[in-house]
Design brief:
By secondary structure, the chain is an all-alpha fold. The chain contains 17 helices and no strands. The longest helix is centred in the middle third of the chain and has 50 residues. The chain is globular.
């Protein structure tokens, strides 16, 4: 059963800014790296003269390690604290991002994508887990964190796209490396969980790590999969699958298509920036709106909008129309991410927050691995334009199936979510 939307925090649920600020800063840098890399990596793959299928493999490989290790990362965060894990992953991200221009080969691109992708996504899991643990997954706070992350997504793309236009790959990867390093520093500044929170918030004890504790445990995976027994968790996981179909397109062949119709790197960055700006604004509306409208149907509607905005891309001609549609997609993403985080966080206990986020991210990244390869294969057979339509149709069909389940499920009617 999905619990009803949490009320607006009262005086007993106020949180000190020394707790909030570094978490939001970590979200600023870690919550949008996926979109920043989505500008550079397709262009990098094109510069390596890769075929459409190989481009799909390069882009999709960013998710390969995460599929197997996201849940393990979430379990480590629940066990030892998210801050320490984010800092370690940040170090891996800085090194791997800096190595890209030094190894201009397809095999190296795949290997570095795997390492960088693991670092990025585990760090993002940590930020979401901190919001769930320290601020109870309240829609207002998840909306604020998403707002800050989207502001980063607004400022970052023009910087990255402009760096590519001015200094090509070395400049773009240098900018990305600095961005990842800033996320590492932000996470390092997050106080121990519970420090600076409301008086009623209890600090979570952190175990002393042993080498054996750092290895994956089958029990962690089983415990995480059992979370699917909750209707709220199941809803978020399935909605994530459909949402990621659109995100997978945007992060891969969307840029390839824009490059094909002669849109510059800076102009592509501006599109991503516009999307993030509108996403930031809509994220602030989630808290108040979630108290008046069913979170479940609000989520499903905006996921549908986000998928359709990607699917129609080849039908768009003028730059202003492309900008309008990607802007609408930004509004949709601004609504659905806080809702996903909030519903998931309020469907599990504090001891399972990071594992729950890791479960969502795992299915997210499985899609991000599959969609580029699928689109690359379809593009080789029927053309790139056709691949947008096929992926859009699959995502829309899955979403309508999910809506039918929600409409008939007593858990959602009883929970009022």
């Amino acid at each position: 059963m999905i619990p009803p939307a949490a009320p607006h925090p009262g005086p007993e649920e106020r949180y000190a800014w020394r707790l909030q600020a570094p978490i939001y800063a970590a979200g600023f840098f870690n919550g949008n790296l996926f979109n920043l890399v989505a500008i550079v990596m397709p262009l990098w793959a094109l510069s390596l003269d890769a075929s459409p299928l190989m481009i799909g493999i390069i882009l999709g490989s960013r998710q390969a390690l995460l599929i197997f290790l996201a849940i393990h990362g979430g379990a480590l965060m629940d066990r030892f604290g998210a801050r320490s894990v984010i800092v370690v992953m940040g170090l891996i991200g800085v090194v791997s991002m800096a190595l890209f221009p030094l190894f201009p080969f397809v095999a190296a691109a795949v290997a570095l994508q795997m390492l960088s992708g693991l670092s990025e996504s585990v760090s993002w899991i940590g930020v979401q887990a901190l919001v769930g643990q320290a601020m109870k997954g309240n829609p207002t706070h998840t909306g604020r964190m998403t707002f800050v992350a989207r502001i980063g997504g607004f400022l970052g793309p023009p910087l990255i796209g402009g760096a590519w236009d001015l200094w090509a790959a070395p400049g773009a990867f240098a900018a990305l490396t600095g961005w990842v390093a800033a996320g590492l520093v932000s996470a390092w500044l997050v106080p121990a969980f519970g420090v600076g929170a409301a008086e009623t918030a209890a600090a979570t004890p952190v175990e002393k790590a042993r080498l054996i504790d750092l290895l994956p445990r089958p029990s962690d995976y089983l415990e995480t999969l059992r979370l699917m027994a909750s209707a709220g968790v199941a809803l978020v996981v399935i909605a994530t699958v459909t949402r990621q179909m659109g995100s997978g397109v945007q992060a891969t062949f969307y840029v390839v298509w824009l490059d094909r119709i002669d849109i510059s790197g800076a102009a592509i960055g501006t599109l991503f920036s516009l999307s993030s700006a509108l996403s930031a604004v809509s994220a602030l509306v989630v808290g108040p709106l979630a108290r008046r409208v069913s979170r479940t149907w609000l989520l499903l509607f905006w996921v549908l909008v986000s998928i359709l905005c990607m699917a129609v891309t080849p039908l768009l001609g003028p730059y202003w129309l492309i900008a309008a549609v990607i802007g609408l997609r930004g509004v949709a993403q601004g609504f659905n991410l806080p809702l996903l985080i909030s519903i998931m966080a309020q469907s599990v206990g504090p001891q399972d927050q990071a594992k729950a986020v890791a479960l969502r991210i795992t299915v997210n990244r499985i899609n991000a691995l599959v969609v580029p390869v699928l689109m690359g294969a379809i593009a080789e057979v029927g053309g790139l334009e056709y691949s947008f339509y096929v992926v859009g149709a699959i995502g829309t069909a899955c979403l309508f199936g999910l809506a039918a389940w929600v409409a008939r499920s007593p858990a959602f009617r009883a929970g009022g979510g």
